[in-house]
Design a protein that fits this description.
83 residues, alpha+beta, 3 helices, globular, Lysozyme
Amino acid sequence: MPAKPSQRWERLRKAGVRSEYEIADGRLVAPVRLEASQGYEYWLGFENLHVITSYNRSNLYAMAIFQLSQAIKEERKRAGARR
């Protein structure tokens, strides 16, 4: 089960951690390592990860929820562009 976010993004960023998303320096994050087909993937979890995994402790479940949310977001963008 991932820990509740307790590390400041600024500290991790200064240590060399990179993110494709913009994150405010003071934001608390929880580093997460997921097993993937080609090794490991490393992600940063926020409070929503902690909430999701309090329901189901699986990191894979949390990742599936994240990926589903991204797919819904993209489909809504496409649907809006078609209007």
